[in-house]
Structure formats: structure tokens, C-alpha cells
Design brief:
The protein is α/β, with parallel strands linked by helices. It has helices at residues 12-23, 39-49, 59-68, 77-85, 103-111, 121-137, 147-156, 189-192, 202-210, 212-224, 263-271, 286-289, 303-314, 318-334, 342-353, 362-380; strands spanning 2-7, 28-34, 53-56, 73-76, 92-95, 115-118, 142-144, 164-171, 232-236, 242-248, 253-257, 295-296. The chain has 16 helices and twelve strands. Helix 6 (121-137) runs antiparallel to helix 14 (318-334) and helix 14 runs antiparallel to helix 15 (342-353). The protein is globular, with a radius of gyration of 20 Å.
Length: 381
């Protein structure tokens, strides 16, 4: 039985992880988890799984829950996230929080020797060099949860990485894939959140609409698979059936296919290197689909993807600055304070003025993240 700690239990990935744990009680035990403000859901999960430790955002919520569940230890805030991540006895940490807040807990788990199942893109985008260096130092596996990186991980399994010529990340195109840039001027939040293929959290869905999500995945793939950016391509694939591909020197291409269901890569990360049956899953039937379509990614149309490539290639603190600018801009859009097209404009302005620090140190990353957020808010004011 694997003992699991979970960051972001009430988000989209977290809820699906809980579903997998609950469907396989003989294989998994939830020993700790974190959540934000959805306290009703926290009560539901705590009652069902009786973990050792739970972290919530606010002190008052932690105190109230402590009286309701005296057998469970309740903590709060950033320190609570770190405590859940480094829970003694956990075999694997599923990091499913959104944003760079997942960085410190990830490092805590690595230093505790806990395997990481990473669904928190921003951690590797902002500080991939730091995280992967620590993982190598402590000999801790980093297992991908994103469907695209899970596909690459599976396609590379048993292969010689020196024989790889390309990693090919597929992209659905997001909510506005059929719109021109001119047509993006007046799109609404509701339209942006209506993803055609996947059920994801709000921030992730907005990132998919701008195509920044794919940009973050490019940088993540660079760190996870030690692959230069020149060997990482993206392909528009609206059906989301092929989740990603690997091309080798002999022109062979290995692809991983499946119905769009995030529980599949989550479960694979939890069971790796084994596989178990997926409960209530829809098997892939290609004869029902009939055709699959592919298009080259247009970096003029999907400008955010081009910005992410540029940030990744520059390296240093530039990816952290780009990521922080994107997080703030997306939050501002969701609050109705800026139009959709201004997300890209903010990111580009930040990147144009950011002075990159090439030092691969955590302090430089955290300083960049904090300063960039202040700059964006000042820019909007």
C-alpha cells in the first residue's frame, strides 16, 4: 500500500486523485492533504479518509476543524503546505496546487526523500534547475502527472534518450482555437472557461485558452527530460487523443493515446511502474473516432507559446518572471479587471524589461517572483 500526501485536494486534479484513492483502498492511503477555502470539501475528505495531517489556508478554519476532528492535526498557510508535503511516512507527494506556491513544499518533500508526482507546472517553470538538481542530489524520482508529460514519460520508457530527435507535445488549442487574433478582443471569462475537451481548474483552462499552458509544458518538458528547446515541438491536435509523441533517430515515432481523462495519468503516476484497472473509464475506440487531425502551431496566433519558448531559452530568472506575470494577469482577467488579450501584453512587457539573473539559486527565483507580481499590479494601477 502506498501512503499519499496531496497538495491541492479540492482542485480539479486533487478531486480526481481523491477519486482514484477512494476507488482503490487496498492500494492507497491518504495520510495528509492541503486545501484552500473550500472547507465543506475538506470536511468531506477528512471524514472519508481520516488522514494524519490537514492544511488549510486560514488559521481560523484550522482551529474550527481541529475541534470537529480532534484525531487529525490541522495546520494552515504556507507552513502548513510544507508540513503536509514533508509528512513522515508518505511514499509519494501529489503536488496539484496551482502556481509557484507549490515550489517550497516540493523541495521539502524531495529533501525528505519522498517521490514527487508533479501536476504543478509552475514549480518546474520558475525553478526547474533548482528542483531537478535537488531531486538528483537526494535520488528522488519526479513523476509527471500532466497528460502530455505522462505520455512522453511512457513513450521514453526503456528507450535510449540519446536517440531522441524530437519531443512532440500535442495541444487541443483551448477554448479559442478557432478564433483569429482580432476575434479575441471581446471574449468573456465564461467563453474562456468553456474548454472543448478537458475538465480542468479555472487557471489552467485560461492558460489553455492563451496557449501559455502549452508554453509552461514546453519548459517543464525541458527540465523533466533534459531536452534542449530546439528538440521540443508542439502540434495542434484538436481531438486530444494522442497526448504526446517521441521521435527517434531512425524516424520511428512512439505515441501514447487515450480518451481525454486526467485520472489516467494521475493513476499511472501513483502506480508506476505498475498499472491497475481504471474504474469507470471510457476505453479508447479509434473506429468510433474515425479521423485525427493535426496542424502546425502558429506562434503569431498563439503568441504566449512563443513568449514561453523565448523565456525558456533565455533561462535564469526569466521563466520565473514570465510565470509570475502570467499568474497575476490571469487572476486579473478572472476578476474582470483586464481584457483577455491584455494577458499576453502584460507578460511581454514584463519580459522586455526584466533583467535576467543567471544564478540558478532559489533565492533569486523567489525574489524575481515577488518583484514581478508587484510590478504587474503597479502596471495595472
Amino acid at each position: 500500500m502506498k501512503k499519499i500526501s496531496l497538495l491541492g485536494a479540492t482542485g480539479s486534479i486533487g478531486i480526481q486523485t481523491i477519486d482514484i484513492i477512494g476507488s482503490n483502498p487496498e492500494k492507497f492511503k491518504l495520510v495528509s492533504f492541503s486545501a484552500g477555502l473550500n472547507i465543506d470539501k475538506v470536511r468531506e475528505i477528512a471524514s472519508a479518509f481520516l488522514p494524519d495531517t490537514v492544511s488549510v489556508m486560514k488559521l481560523e478554519d484550522a482551529q474550527k476543524l481541529q475541534t470537529e476532528f480532534p484525531a487529525i492535526r490541522f495546520v494552515h498557510g504556507e507552513e502548513g503546505l510544507v508540513e503536509v508535503a514533508g509528512h513522515t511516512g508518505a511514499d509519494i507527494l501529489v503536488n496539484a496546487v496551482i502556481g509557484s506556491v507549490g515550489l517550497k513544499p516540493t523541495l521539502e518533500a524531495i529533501r525528505a526523500g519522498i517521490t514527487i508526482a508533479i501536476a504543478n507546472k509552475e514549480t518546474l517553470v520558475a525553478a526547474g534547475d533548482v528542483v531537478m538538481s535537488e531531486a538528483r542530489k537526494f535520488n528522488v524520482p519526479i513523476l509527471p502527472v500532466d497528460s502530455e508529460h505522462s505520455a512522453l514519460f511512457q513513450a521514453l520508457n526503456g528507450e535510449n534518450p540519446k536517440r531522441v530527435t524530437r519531443l512532440i507535445l500535442t495541444a487541443s488549442g483551448g477554448s479559442f482555437r478557432d478564433l483569429t487574433r482580432d476575434e479575441l478582443s471581446n471574449v468573456t471569462l465564461a467563453q474562456a472557461l468553456a474548454h472543448p475537451n478537458w475538465s480542468m481548474g479555472n487557471k489552467l483552462t485560461i492558460d489553455s485558452a492563451t496557449m501559455m499552458n502549452k508554453g509552461l509544458e514546453v519548459i517543464e518538458a525541458h527540465h523533466l527530460f533534459a531536452m534542449p528547446y530546439e528538440k521540443i515541438d508542439c502540434l495542434l491536435h484538436k481531438e486530444s487523443i494522442i497526448h504526446s509523441m517521441v521521435e527517434f533517430e531512425d524516424t520511428s515515432v512512439m505515441a501514447q493515446l487515450g480518451s481525454p481523462d486526467m485520472r489516467v495519468p494521475i493513476q499511472y503516476a501513483l502506480t508506476y511502474p505498475d498499472r491497475i484497472p481504471m474504474q469507470n473509464a471510457k476505453p479508447l475506440r479509434l473506429e468510433e473516432i474515425g479521423k485525427l487531425h493535426f496542424e502546425k502551431m502558429d506562434l503569431l496566433r498563439f503568441k504566449a507559446l512563443g513568449l514561453a519558448y523565448a523565456a525558456g531559452k533565455e533561462g535564469g530568472t526569466m521563466p520565473a518572471a514570465m510565470n509570475a506575470a502570467n499568474e497575476v494577469a490571469v487572476a486579473l482577467f478572472m476578476k474582470g479587471r483586464i481584457p483577455f488579450v491584455q494577458i499576453e501584453e502584460i507578460i511581454e512587457r514584463v519580459m522586455d524589461t526584466h533583467r535576467t539573473n543567471s544564478a540558478l539559486e532559489l533565492e533569486a527565483v523567489l525574489e524575481t517572483d515577488s518583484l514581478t507580481r508587484k510590478i504587474v499590479y503597479a502596471m495595472i494601477e
